[in-house]
Amino acid sequence: xxxxxxxxxxxxxxxxxxxxxxxxxxxxxxxxxxxxxxxxxxxxxxxxxxxxxxxxxxxxxxxxxxxxxxxxxxxxxxxxxxxxxxxxxxxxxxxxxxxxxxxxxxxxxxxxxxxxxxxxxxxxxxxxxxxxxxxx
Length: 136
What we know:
The protein is mainly alpha-helical. It has helices spanning 2-11, 31-43, 62-73, 97-103, 111-124, 126-134, and strands at 17-19, 25-27, 59-61, 80-82. It has a two-stranded parallel sheet with strand order 1-4. Strands 2-3 form a two-stranded antiparallel sheet. It is globular.
């Protein structure tokens, strides 16, 4: 939700809000990579019965993510900080080694490309998507 909220706020001229100090890290996976691997698994049975992580090897801290989003939409906005949310994971990162070994999976879109593509998608779908984000 962090990326979605950052994009929505910046598009509305509001600063992105980071809960905590921004050192938390996340492993974002571009939707196209997920679609591609699922299409492959429809025809490739080598992973049948296996549990594999499909993710990215491109970890990013939340402060950097907020800066990337802000800089693409409205670099004049200041980033705001609020209290960390109870129960938020400090760090997430998918271990894709098994998926790589079994089906040759690798992510193809790095976080900065993904952010740019997501912002374009968000703008194209803002009429219906933004009200959902703003009310969550």
